[in-house]
Design brief:
Aspartate Aminotransferase, domain 2, four-stranded antiparallel beta sheet, binds pyridoxal-5'-phosphate, alpha/beta, Aspartate Aminotransferase, domain 1, eight-stranded mixed beta sheet
Length: 379
């Protein structure tokens, strides 16, 4: 079917084949999404005006007002240095095809969302993995980072806050990553889709923007804003590189949709933007507390480094079953979906998304605990 050299996107394949129609879908990475009506109310969108939107091809690199707003989030960025994409997904794919030449390598941290690494591998570029260390709260192995980087390193890829661990890089780790990139002139591609989903406090995860001259930022409406169905993301960087990505965007998708750009424009205008983030954080905070309570039903079986941000927890388990088999039993027997750690290259874990309506989450946790009891009793 595929060439043996093709690397499927293991996490997204698992989701797209299995998640539809699942009763307890705890496998997604964002907060519980909003309805269209919910967004209209929250952002006080004038419906008669919205209804006049022409269903035309939009401005290909993104609606001007939307790019103006987004450039304002990144001090010193111009609207020409912003391009609107079909989700962060398209942005990541464009970055890989724009920056990577044959013979280049890319350095990535594991576990991570293996999108840009998968694109790189499918282009024939070497992917160099640097482990994140669970016993160090999923911090960066900085010695391994220094060893992984060489003059052929074109990209150091960071997902900050991280998927699946929810870890936010420390100032020290960020400095090491910048130093490693600067030592060989590599680009830092920072996927910051989970910035703004901090679980404690109100300090937003600092952007890599402005920390080094070779930085590209990827972000989207999907996570902190809870609007994944808009399929709208963005790329921020030096104008010359953004223009190169734009040439590839014309091949990949032409543009994001007109209606999505209109709605994103409204959602990112204050006070809607702040209200969306407040909504996301409330779901994330309650959800994690409920998850912790649920996992405590089996002391010693589950362990989790509390995520500093995001709706997700990367939960370790001590059970005589692989992560793939555990997740498939949960799906078959309990109609509940989690993502096996193996899909992130780490056994003995699953990814659990808990920023969901509380009653639904509690009901699902009862089923997780019931199957756990069965496994502990050898059933
Ligand atoms: C780190 C990361 N980047 C990108 C994406 C894709 O986001 P989008 O819905 O904006 O395409 C995801 C989705 O899970 C993600 O976790």
């Amino acid at each position: 079917m595929f060439s043996p050299d093709f690397h499927p996107f293991k996490v997204e394949q698992f989701l797209s084949e299995l998640e539809h129609g699942v009763k307890f879908n705890f496998s997604e990475s964002g907060v519980h999404p909003m309805s269209f009506q919910g967004l209209v109310d929250l952002a006080e969108i004038d419906m008669p005006t919205l209804m006049e939107t022409m269903i035309d091809y939009p401005q290909v690199n993104g609606k001007q007002s939307l790019r103006d707003t987004i450039s304002g989030f990144y001090p010193g960025a111009s609207s020409e240095g912003v391009m609107i994409t079909v989700g962060a997904t398209e942005a990541n794919t464009l970055v890989a095809s724009t920056l990577l030449e044959p013979g280049d390598n890319i350095v990535c941290f594991r576990p991570t969302y293996e999108q840009i690494s998968g694109n790189a591998a499918n282009r024939g570029n070497e992917v160099r993995w640097v482990d994140l260390i669970e016993t160090n709260d999923w911090g960066v192995d900085t010695d391994a980072l220094a060893k992984a980087v060489d003059e052929k390193t074109r990209i150091i890829h960071v997902v900050n806050p991280n998927n699946p661990t929810g870890r936010v890089l420390t100032a020290g780790d960020r400095a090491q990553i910048i130093a490693a990139a600067a030592s060989v002139g590599a680009w830092i591609v920072a996927d910051e889709v989970y910035a703004g989903t901090e679980r404690e406090g109100d300090v937003e995860t600092p952007s890599f923007w402005g920390t080094y001259d070779r930085v590209l930022i990827v972000n989207s409406m999907s996570k902190a804003y809870g609007l994944p169905g808009l399929r709208l993301g963005w790329l921020v960087g030096p104008e010359e590189i953004i223009t190169q990505c734009w040439r590839r965007h014309e091949y990949a998708s032409i543009a994001s949709s007109m209606l999505s750009m209109e709605l994103a424009d409204k959602a990112l205008a204050e006070p809607a933007r702040s209200k969306l983030k407040i909504r996301a954080k409330a779901l994330i905070r309650t959800g994690f507390d409920v998850l912790t309570e649920g996992l405590a039903q089996h002391p010693g079986v589950f362990s989790v480094v509390p995520p500093e941000a995001s709706a997700m927890s990367f939960v370790g388990f001590d059970l005589p079953i692989s992560s793939e088999d555990l997740c498939m039993r949960l799906l078959r027997e309990k109609n509940l979906l989690l993502i096996p750690g193996s899909r992130f290259g780490v056994e003995g874990h699953f990814r659990f998304s808990s920023a969901l309506p509380e009653d639904h989450l509690r009901e699902g946790l009862v089923h997780l605990n019931a199957l756990t009891a069965d496994i502990l009793q050898g059933r």
